[in-house]
Design a protein that fits this description.
With 181 residues, the protein is an alpha/beta fold. The protein is built from six helices and nine strands, in the order αββααβαββββαβαβ. It has a domain of 125 residues: 3-Layer(aba) Sandwich (Rossmann fold). It binds 1-O-pyrophosphono-5-O-phosphono-alpha-D-ribofuranose and adenine. Pfam families: Pribosyltran.
Length: 181
Amino acid sequence: MNQDKLTLIKDSIKAVPDYPKPGIMFRDVTSLMESAEAFTASIELFTEEFRDAGITKIVGTEARGFLFGAPLAIALGVGFVPVRKPGKLPRETIGQSYELEYGQDTLELHIDAIVPGDKVLVVDDLLATGGTIEATVKLIRSLGGEVDHSAFVISLPDLGGEKKLESLGLTITKLCEFDGD
Ligand SMILES: O=P(O)(O)OC[C@H]1O[C@H](OP(=O)(O)OP(=O)(O)O)[C@H](O)[C@@H]1O
Ligand SMILES: Nc1ncnc2[nH]cnc12
């Protein structure tokens, strides 16, 4: 990947100590999005990476996964499917609960949004424990979707998400990483 773009992206992400709870170093992707150059670079790098991967759908997780998944879907010319927190999707859904770095939650997916044979790329702003994407992958696979690839703007490898997703058979594409938290 283009090193200048990767540096621009990493440098644009502000750190907020003790948010949303004491002891959490919050990596704020909204500061990246405030920079047209950094936001554009992130979508360009993902597009180059997945242009020839045979992806048929992108799944993005609420809420920050929508911000990168949707523009990438347009760039790749494929559909975008949201995975949402409970009660937000209007049609019939399936659900999966999961653990977060700072809590517990459930995610839902429309049952007709993924069809057997879909080759799905899961996209989120940040990979921490991997709980969000593990739950998302279970939802997609239970509907017959194939999911081999994941993409993140930020990874926090110390929190174990990369190992968890590798054990699920996923490749991990990340634009930057931070350690020590
Ligand atoms: O790898 P994990 O430990 O699962 O953590 C990563 C997830 O946590 C954050 O979302 P959050 O649940 O805070 O939701 P939000 O995007 O709606 O703020 C982040 O955007 C990822 O989706
Ligand atoms: N440290 C962190 N910064 C931003 N988003 C997160 N989601 C889970 N952990 C996070």
